[in-house]
Structure formats: C-alpha cells, structure tokens
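Re: your question from the hallway

Yes, I did run it. Sequences:
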Amino acid sequence: MAKILIVEDNALNIKLFCDLLAAHGHQPEAVTDSRVAIDAAREFSPDLVITDIQLPHISGLELIRMIRGDQKLARIPIMAVTAYSALGDEERIREAGAQAYVSKPISVVRFAETVEQLLKDEGDKAAVDALEDPASDVGESPGPGEPGGEE
Ligand code: MN
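Structure:
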C-alpha cells in the first residue's frame, strides 16, 4: 500500500484515479486546488504525487518545480497526467522534474502500470540507499569525494 496524493481539478478524473488506486490497494488523497497541494503533501507525506498539468492558479508544471525545490518533498516521485500532448510537452514535464507522464484520456492499464513502476523504482532506490549507508554511520558530514553543494 502506498499513499498517493492526487492534484486534479476535474471531479470525474479524481473519482476515476481514486477508484483505480484504491482497487490496487493504495491510499489516495486528492486536492482540487494546486494552491494547497504543497501543504497537503507536507501533511500527507505521499509516496507518490500524481498531478494534472492543466490546473488553474498554479499549473502542474509549476507545481512539479515547487515540489522539486522543496527540501522535504524533493525526493517524492511525480507522475504527470495531461490532456494535451503537444510536441515538446513530455520533455518540458520531465525537465520540470516528473519521472513519468500519462496522457488523457488515460489508459487504465497504463496508468496502473506506471504507478506501480514508480513505486517499485522508489523502493529499489531506498534498498540501495540502505545498502550503501553503513548502519553505524549516523553522522551527517559527507564523506570524501561525495558531491558537496548544490547550485
Ligand atoms: Mn485540469
């Protein structure tokens, strides 16, 4: 079971996504207003964020950038859902920081497979992190040769 935050302004899509995710044993939580999405994500601590791209107020692309720029949320995988796939859309979505992209109207199978793949990738990463982290090492200082600062 994974906690999945959905950001989507269309009620029918929310119902569809929530039903699908619940049917796969997940715990979905939806917000319709992207202006509250960051607060909701901080509170809900989702394992995955699914966001619409065409959103009023704060677009999905902007929201993805905000999540990637947020210290607490930056590592959460993001799947974007969009109605228009113009040339270059997928590139823009990936550049903003989403790992995956599904077009509307969604294929139920592709939607579910993409969710499971993202959750699996995340689990694999966590396992690698655990292996690479010596259990005794509780210090915070980066070891020699590790990339230090961000820009
Ligand atoms: Mn929308």
